Amino acid sequence: MSSIARVLPVACAILMCAAQASAADLPVKAGVQAAALPEWVNPILAVNNQLAIDVIGQHIDYLERDVDGTPLDSERGWQPGVQFSGSGMGNLGAITNVYVLGQFTFAKGNTSYVGSFQGGTYGDIKQSDGAETKDFDFRLGKGFDVAPNWMLTPYVGVGYHVWDRDISGAGGYHEQYEHGYAGGGLLIQYAATNRWVISANGLVGSTFNPQMATSLNGGAVFTPTTYDLGTSLIWKAGLSSDYAITPQWHVNAGFDYTNFRYGISAQAADGTLEPDSRTGIWTVKAGLGYSFYAPSAVVAKY
């Protein structure tokens, strides 16, 4: 690392430049030439045209209930994982600020299982089980500059969720839950400075084609079955912060929350069924992104 004696002159030079360019954080008046601006012409567009990878921690909170509301079994715990995302925002013909995002999230780790034996009481069984989740998300929307440094982007969102649940032990078995979802959402973004953007988003929609398939894992012996589950409301919310180290390289941190239910299934041929359940998933994340945004020659709004 550089010594303090070498760092101080550089820091002073940066502060002097920042003072001279402080107007870049404010709405630009008509007489200002775009060529006089730094490369940070539009920080929100820089964030929205980016490839990113994040390290995540994901907390699952799953609970099954009997028809009378009595808990049957639950699965809770944190899992490490990774998230890949890519987004773009630009003009499509006469339509400005068209927004698209694709994202893949993967997490895997042990969770705490609490259940019961057949005819027993919830809590009779407590153990650690393996779990793995995969999420695919896609969004398409349009951004609106509603005020200096503010952008609102309504969007439609679709995706798919898969949860592999591996219950261990002599009575163990494997379950795979999955569903698609579709809904409408809103992305709210604020450029606090020409480097720092704060984003909040929310989505409300419905699940579709929810299923749970059982299979053998060397524990219990039974006939593998696929259960069709009931659809439900799904909602998502998130908050994130993005800081541009350079015009291209960004660091970010944030959290997301997803909540949905699975409705009770019809009775299978062997007399079994999948009960009603609810699931909440918290995701905290931090990572690095590369912005491929190229500033235009127009006067900046940020």
Provide an overview of this structure:
With about 300 residues, this protein is mainly beta. About 10% of the residues lie in helices and about 60% in strands. The protein has two helices and twelve strands. The protein has helices at about 5-20, 45-50; strands at about 50-65, 70-90, 95-115, 125-140, 145, 150-165, 175-190, 195-215, 225-230, 235-245, 250-260, 275-290. A ten-stranded antiparallel β-barrel has the order 1-2-3-4-6-7-8-10-11-12. A hairpin with a 2-residue loop joins strand 5 (about 145) and strand 6 (about 150-165). The protein is elongated. It starts with a helix and ends in an 11-residue tail after the last strand.
Short summary of the structure?
This protein has 302 residues and is mainly beta. Helix content is 8%, strand content 61%. The chain has a ten-stranded antiparallel beta barrel.
**Order of secondary-structure elements:** HHEEEEEEEEEEEE
Largest sheet, order of strands side by side?
1-2-3-4-6-7-8-10-11-12
What is the averaged pLDDT score? 85
Chain oligomer state: single chain
Tell me the radius of gyration.
24 Å
| Sequence stretches where pLDDT stays below 50 over 5 or more residues | 1-37, 297-302
Sheet bearing the most strands, described?
10 strands, antiparallel, barrel
Helix/strand class: mainly beta
How many extended strands?
12
| Broad shape | elongated
Q: Report the helical percentage.
A: under 10%
Distance between the termini: 34 Å
Number of helices: 2
Query: What fraction strand?
Result: over 45%
